[in-house]
């Protein structure tokens, strides 16, 4: 059996004619930038996340950068975040002119450990970026409390967590702004790049709308230094159709996750740690990520037997060559470093079949029985 990490073909088949018709309507309308499809998507994503304003942008990385700029982050400022995330989280901080300050993760959720944030705050700290990794919300209440106490902005990196919830609240109504990515592999994926920022703050929303069009309002009168970062109509047309299915797709992901956990814990609980959904969270399983000591060997064995897996992420950001100048060394963030050596994400998408999941777990079982015999 051959099982890819992600298979988008069935999803496309089910929406194909609806999508083609909608794309055709955009092409016939000749409105390609910031038209009605983008407006509708901005409203709908804001409302699904209990925010008030949505700002469509070119990608999730720009969503972070524009959020930081709109919150007033400037050269000399520090922004606290996790080292166990995709590069873009900290890349956006540096692009905004600020310095990333890393704080280690909680080894159970893989998200930033709120109990370690306060000791990283200095007089230059301006914002915190919690990342809701793999689709599970960070423990936000202590972070929001710290932010109030020290007058910091909170910019949520929810690139992997659209539709997730935390203690009865939606991801999107927690921080000052929340950033989503519509990269094709995300839970709500475009057919190209795309991103969105949501917020309840009308002033921040207005700033972000200006920044994404070269800082201009009205056109050709430039208030601040912005850039070209817009979501286009074709992508928004696709996303408006897909958005109607997001809640169901997230539910299906959760079902697949439950099935994995049951199968893995029946037979392999001595070798594998399955993901934990913290009480009060609604995890949307962008990834189903296990921990396993013999990770690289297991990954090779699975690949040989037709099962694709991925490591998100093999090198924590404080050890990336691009961030060498920040001066961190190995040993600074032990939980992140250990996670980078042990995590393995298994195939996960709403259309994944139970037989495929059984084959994956059987293959993992084979690996351990041959390894230890
Ligand atoms: C995907 C992702 C991003 C960046 O989104 P793009 O749309 O690819 O720019 C940022 N942070 C995290 C955690 C991501 O997974």
Q: Mind explaining what this structure looks like?
A:
- The chain has 373 residues and is α/β, with parallel strands linked by helices.
- It is built from eleven helices and 13 strands.
- It is globular and about 70 Å long.
- Pyridoxal-5'-phosphate (PLP) is lined by residues 59-61, 85-86, 88-89, 131, 157, 159-160, 181, 183, 193, 195.
Shape: globular
CATH class of the largest domain: Alpha Beta
- Class by alpha and beta content: alpha/beta
CATH topology label of the largest domain: Aspartate Aminotransferase, domain 2
CATH architecture of the largest domain: 3-Layer(aba) Sandwich
When the domains are counted, the total is 2
Fraction of residues in helix: 25-40%
Number of helices: 11
The percent range for strand residues is: 5-15%
CATH superfamily of the largest domain: Type I PLP-dependent aspartate aminotransferase-like (Major domain)
* Main sheet makeup: 7 strands, mixed
How far apart the termini lie comes to 25 Å
The Rg value, from CA coordinates, equals 21 Å
Oligomer: single chain
Ligands, deduplicated: pyridoxal-5'-phosphate
